[in-house]
Amino acid sequence: MSRRSLRLSTALAIALLCAGLFTGISAASSSPSATKAHGSPGSATQIKNLVATSSKITRLTAQTGAQVASPQAAWMTYHLAQWCSTASQCVFGDAKSNKIIVMFGDSHAVMWLPAMDGIAKAYKLRLVLLSAGNCPAISNVAETNALNKGCGAFHTSSIRIINSLHPVSVVISELSAVWRNSNGTLIPEAEWQAGLTTTIKQIKAKVAMMEDVVYFDSQVPNCLAAYPTNVQACSVPAPNPIHPGQQIAEQAAAKATGATFVKTWPWFCTKTCSPIVGNFMTYFDWDHITTGYAAYLSKVLRSALAKDL
Fold first, then answer.
1. How many Cα atoms sit within 13 Å of 216 on the Cβ side?
2. Beta strands 280-281 and 276-277: pairing type?
3. What are residue 25's DSSP bridge partners?
4. What string of pLDDT tens digits covers the 309 residues of the chain?
5. Beta strand 272-273 pairing with 236-237
6. Is the peptide bond before 244 cis (omega within 30 degrees of 0)?
7. Residue environment code for 244-278, b if the CB has 16+ CB neighbours within 10 A, otherwise e
8. Which of 16, 114, 237, 264 has most Cβ atoms within 10 angstroms of its Cβ?
9. Backbone angles phi, psi at 280, to 5 degrees
10. HEC profile of 134-173
11. Which strand (E) or helix (H) includes residue 293?
């Protein structure tokens, strides 16, 4: 199955689940099992050391092998929250708090929920998720995104909701590596930066921009299942020239608007990105991080966002 087909089939499956089974997702529905399974969130030093030695990992262990064997267990709870378009539909953290933090974006915002949920609880913040699958944060996304023609309306509505909530801050995270202009060429960095800058300027609150992650060349669990004694056969360089993202444009837009820029690559990669870091499979497909590893990164993400909380 192609990546496009897989993304579409996954999106359809989740949409059907949300339509048939869920009227909303709350903090009560978020699972604490990811953190319990792997212990407390890692410190900056622990994560730095694990990443530094990750390229030397050659074999799956019983723990990482179990994650490879059941990749859906790493994402199902939070990733039901793919389409959240109101202030009350997908709420995490301290749901009764009057102080609000908003997570805004697409599935790359959803994947950070295990970390953000813990942060919101620690600061006694209500975490409101506004997300739409395949809708990155750039304001001109309707022109560039053939998978979801509703992105323009979602953006307009989300900005209105955000500004009406008067949040403490807004954290943006987005899928950035697959979008092309109508002529088939990759969107230029300047165009992406301009669209993202417009979005940030429309938000009447402090904004933090998450650096998009490096993309793998294949579905990580499938690759590791094929190479259980040669884990690094599944690794990719950072940056990955096969899937160039818009991280430079994201950083430039953050700088131009005074937004916080959260560098995520050091939590996953040195010059290469290993699919296993410590006892974690870091991705559950080719571009989304696992619930377990996201929860493990809660402490370093909290530190990165400290001035915005």
1. 26
2. antiparallel
3. 90
4. 334 333 433 332 333 223 222 234 554 334 344 445 456 899 999 999 999 999 999 999 999 999 999 876 655 555 555 689 999 999 999 999 999 999 999 999 999 999 999 999 999 999 999 999 888 898 876 555 555 677 888 999 999 999 999 999 999 999 999 887 777 778 889 989 999 999 999 999 999 999 999 999 999 999 999 999 999 999 999 999 999 999 999 999 999 999 999 999 999 999 999 999 999 999 999 999 999 999 999 999 999 999 999
5. antiparallel
6. no
7. ebbbebbbbbbeebebbbbebbebbbeeebbbbbb
8. 114
9. -115, 135
10. CCCCCCCHHHHCCCCCCHHHHHHHHHHHHHHHCCCEEEEE
11. helix 291-296
Q: What is the pTM of this model?
A: 0.86
Q: How many domains does the chain have?
A: 1
Q: Which residues contact 257 (CB under 8 A, 6 or more apart)?
A: 197, 200, 201, 207
CA dihedral 20, 24, 26, 29 (to 10 degrees): 0
- Check the CA dihedral 279-49-245-260 and report its sign: positive
Local structure of 287: helix, strand or coil: coil
Helix (H) / strand (E) containing 194: helix 189-202
Instruction: Tell me the residue range of the domain where 178 lies.
Output: 3-308
List the structure tokens of 123.
Answer: 């600061």
Tell me how crowded residue 208 is: count the other CB atoms within 10 A of its CB.
22
The Cα 207–Cα 170 span in angstroms is 5
